[in-house]
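With this grant's support, we have settled on a layout for protein records. A representative record follows, to show the layout.
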Amino acid sequence: MADEFAKGLAIFMGAGLAWLTLAGWYRTPSFEGSGVQLVAEAPEPSTVYGTIGVVLMDVMAWFAVIGALTFWVVIPLFEQARASYDERGS
């Protein structure tokens, strides 16, 4: 179980850091008194790299959530169900 927790934490931290970096670049219009940072609407990208950055930002946000939940909830749930099924079948 500790292995799954470590993997989920690594995914959550890595993808969260990537999202935080990209959101700082693309979703922060100004650091001076705008009041909205990291969650503002992303501007329309004018280059291919800007488009990749905006898409990657959304992918990293979902990967952080789904990846962590997979290792913290789904995999332990299946392992517990398999152990219960094997115990019942013996």
